[in-house]
């Protein structure tokens, strides 16, 4: 992984109530547990950068990608069932994007190297599923349905040995099972998080 061009300037403000009301908490880095700062969170404003927000603490649960903008009632806007409980800032990456995707767990089965967005893994690579990957360069979003739809998972550089056991937390699969929520995923489309997202 190249650290060249990584920029850690991100800023998000969380509010307890909808429409940016109530107590607020400003965050410029990863936050594993929002309850330390706010009893609830129903709206947010991304001033700079990109973030992944989670509906459980410690980067677990369903994930949503937020870029610069205002989210006055994100639960309705994004179909979230619960408040934001944790967030992870996505570093800006300037340079090549590269990952290897595998048809089966533990880097088995067909392997393809991906360097750009793929809106349908099955059509492009003739793979019926993608069950593990190795992210070498860049930060990515992987979606359970073609055309970047359905639940998603944030992938940063590292090895992800088994999506069915990694849950939705975006932690490195080579470090064991981190907070599996019992909802393993198979991915059918892949998108890079590029400069234009920031």
TrEMBL record:
- Can you tell which superkingdom this protein's organism belongs to? Eukaryota
Keywords assigned by UniProt, alphabetized:
Eye lens protein, Repeat
A biological process (GO) of this protein is: visual perception
Give start and end of each Beta/gamma crystallin 'Greek key' domain. Answer: 10-48, 49-91, 138-189
Alphabetized GO MF terms: structural constituent of eye lens
Function recorded in the entry: Crystallins are the dominant structural components of the vertebrate eye lens.
Family in the record = Belongs to the beta/gamma-crystallin family.
Protein name in UniProt: Gamma-crystallin M2-like isoform X2
* Organism in which the protein naturally occurs: Xyrichtys novacula (Pearly razorfish)
């Amino acid at each position: 992984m190249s650290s060249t061009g990584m920029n850690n300037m991100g800023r998000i403000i969380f509010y307890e109530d909808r429409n940016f009301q109530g107590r607020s908490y400003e965050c410029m880095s990863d936050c594993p547990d929002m309850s330390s700062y706010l009893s609830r969170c129903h709206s947010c404003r991304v001033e700079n950068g990109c973030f992944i927000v989670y509906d459980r603490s410690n980067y677990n649960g369903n994930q949503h990608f937020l870029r610069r903008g205002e989210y006055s009632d994100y639960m309705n806007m994004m179909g979230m069932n619960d408040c934001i409980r944790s967030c992870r800032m996505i570093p800006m990456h300037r340079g090549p994007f590269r990952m290897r995707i595998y048809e089966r767990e533990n880097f088995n089965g067909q392997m393809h190297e991906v360097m750009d967005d793929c809106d349908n893994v099955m059509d492009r690579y003739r793979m019926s599923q993608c069950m593990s990957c190795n992210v070498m360069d860049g930060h990515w979003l992987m979606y359970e349905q073609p055309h970047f739809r359905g639940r998603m998972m944030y992938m940063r550089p590292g090895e992800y040995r088994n999506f069915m056991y990694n849950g939705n937390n975006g932690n490195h699969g080579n470090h064991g099972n981190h907070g599996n929520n019992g909802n393993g995923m198979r991915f059918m489309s892949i998108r890079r998080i590029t400069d234009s997202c920031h």
